[in-house]
Design brief:
GO terms for molecular function: tubulin binding. InterPro entries: EF-hand-dom_pair, TPP/p25. By secondary structure, the protein is an all-alpha fold. The protein is built from 3 helices and no strands. It is globular, with a radius of gyration of 12 Å.
């Protein structure tokens, strides 16, 4: 059974990609997760900030 966090990651990881396994996430889906969770507010955290974090972590 997946935890709520694992389930959320999986859902965003496979969003819009029929070939995705849900084990890794692409930058586009990371940005969507950040927007949907209101991490990106356009003032303190921008899409560019989220992209930079993704690039550094991945």
């Amino acid at each position: 059974m997946l935890s709520a966090l694992q389930e959320a990651f999986w859902r965003f990881a496979v969003h819009g990609d029929t070939r995705a396994t849900g084990k890794e996430m692409h930058g586009k889906n990371w940005s969507k997760l950040c927007k949907d969770c209101q991490v990106i507010d356009g003032k303190n955290v921008t899409v560019t900030d989220a992209d930079i974090v993704f690039s550094k972590i991945k």
